[in-house]
Amino acid sequence: MREILEAVAAGEVSPEAAEAELKGYATGEAGRFDAARTRRSGVPEAILGADKTPAEAAALAETSLETTGRVLATRLDEAQTSTVRDRLAETAPAAETRVHGRAGLLVAHGPGFEPPDLDAQVGVVTAGTGDTVPATEAAVLAREMGRPSTGSTTSAWRVWRGCSTSFRDFAHRTY
Questions:
Q1: pLDDT above 90 (res 87)
Q2: 51-74: per-residue pLDDT in tens?
Q3: How many domains does the chain have?
Q4: In what order do the strands lie in the sheet with 96-100?
Q5: Is the confidence at residue 165, as pLDDT, over 60?
Q6: Which end of the chain is more exposed for a tag (fewer CB within 10 A), N or C?
Q7: pLDDT of res. 152
Q8: Together in a domain, 107 and 131
């Protein structure tokens, strides 16, 4: 704790980042952000855009970038995406931002952000374009957890068509 307080006193760490480190949560103008979720669970906190105003999504994104070094925002509409991008460009111009438009995802990394390295294999397999949004969310989350995913939108259909009828019927009923 002393190191954190000394870093704040020296201007090396913002009070918000120190609060997040000490408490695990950072409270900003749009609400509370779980800045310690990655440390506790290995899964980064995501900002769910649904039911948030563009200003609230942008404020949470700013808090996220300041306290964790990254932003993972999901289910953003065009207005939210634009507002978040503009806010980050203004408050953190060195941040690298990627938008996955169709899926409504925005990911940003601050300078010096080091992604984790998860020792696992992740595959995302879908049955068609209707699964693009959740498949993109899963692939981006896997990458943010430290493991790029591999996947295909057609391989599942090829495998499915190659199964016996009785297996397909069983799998369909239990799915």
A1: yes
A2: 999 999 999 999 999 989 999 999
A3: 2
A4: 47-48, 70-74, 105-109, 96-100
A5: no
A6: C
A7: 52
A8: no
Could you tell me if 18 and 37 lie in one domain?
Answer: yes
- Exposure string of 116-132, with b = 16+ CB inside 10 Å and e = fewer, is eeeeeebebbbeeeebe
Residue 156 φ/ψ region, left for φ over 0, alpha for ψ in the -120 to 50 degree band, beta for the rest? alpha
pLDDT of residue 84: 98
Residues 40 and 110 in one domain: yes
**Nearest alpha-carbon partner for 92 in 46, 126, 61, 137:** 61
Report strand pairing: 70-74 vs 96-100.
unpaired
How is residue 75 annotated by DSSP?
Answer: S
Residues 151 and 87 in one domain: no
- If asked whether residues 136 and 93 sit together in one domain, one would say no
**How much is the pTM?**
0.73
What lies within 8 Å, CB to CB, of 39 at 6+ separation is 24
Same domain, 122 and 84: no
Q: Which of 62, 95, 114 is the last residue of a domain?
A: 114
In whole numbers, what is the pLDDT of the chain averaged over residues?
82
Alpha helices in 1-53 (DSSP H): 2-9, 15-23, 37-41
Range of the domain at 167: 115-175
